[in-house]
Amino acid sequence: MTGVSATYARGVSATEIGDWDAASRAVADAYFPHELTDLSGTDRPKLSLTTVDLGGVTLGRLHWGADIAIACDYPGAYEVNIPVTGRLESRGSHGETVSVPGQATVFRADTPSVITHWGATCSVLGVKFDREHLEREADRILGSPVRSKLELPDQLDLTGPASEWHGLVRALSEQLDGALEVVRNPVVGAQLAGAVTAAFVLAVAPQDGPAGPPRPGMIRRVLDALHDDPGRAWTSADMAELAGTSVRRLQEAFAHFVGRSPSACLLDIRLDRAHADLVAGAGAVTVADVAYRWGFSHPGRFAAAFKRRYGTTPAEVLRGR
């Protein structure tokens, strides 16, 4: 059986779809228009699909429950498919690729490719990067223009330099079973999309050449900006762009002059502001209000970081203890 899908709104969450046309549409909702071919000869698939659109990055889990093939041009976006179980076979302009757990297949934006065999036992963690988002962020993260020459491998070894990115994506995928509304929050989504993108670019981009001497001026610019607006959804790329350097160079400069990472400095600033608000807080102020005001997307993690810093909980400070 063959079905041709159309494009629909993103951010779909669906489970156990047993109709080929509906299954094809649901996958197009979250990812790409495509041509789907049933290789199993079954009347009904057993599609399990859960996705979330973070803004520029879509993350999802997908299991067809049948042997299928998919032809797609990947319009306007890159796709990275990570088999969690089973085997994924594909063919593109650079030849054949077979990925199993521990590997990922990379599909380039606006480039026709065919997944020649997606097995019935193959579950995939799929990460979609909007082309404009990934190429813009790569420019900022690497500190040099790459949009016309962003070169990605056909396959990633997830046990090598990409292991950190894989761990982050895996951890986020576990949230798909729970608080989707939290990760769909625009502030939280922007932070998560920035983290996923930065980790991916740093994993696949060539290593930087010899570093120039660290410059204290760029450190001061970043610290001043963090103090001025700590509640902003800062990403590593934002800070690097402000400093006029790459993410790697900025991290090295902070380590040299400050002895801490930019994100650790931002955490301290946010905790200081939150502590001051809690000390002064009264009436309708809640711990969650204060956490979100200062850029903490997860109240539980905020409370844990706060207690490590101050030896007490935010709730106790708010109550005046």
From TrEMBL:
According to the UniProt entry, its GO molecular function terms are: DNA-binding transcription factor activity; sequence-specific DNA binding
The answer, when asked if Transcription is one of the entry's keywords, is yes
UniProt keyword annotations, A-Z: DNA-binding, Transcription, Transcription regulation
Q: Which residues form the signal peptide?
A: none
HTH araC/xylS-type domain residues: 220-320
Q: Which Pfam families match?
A: AraC_binding_2 (PF14525), HTH_18 (PF12833)
Q: What organism is this sequence from?
A: Rhodococcus aetherivorans
InterPro entries, alphabetized: AraC-bd_2, AraC_XylS_family_regulators, Homeodomain-like_sf, HTH_AraC, HTH_AraC-typ_CS, Tscrpt_reg_AraC-type_HTH
Protein name, UniProt field:
AraC family transcriptional regulator
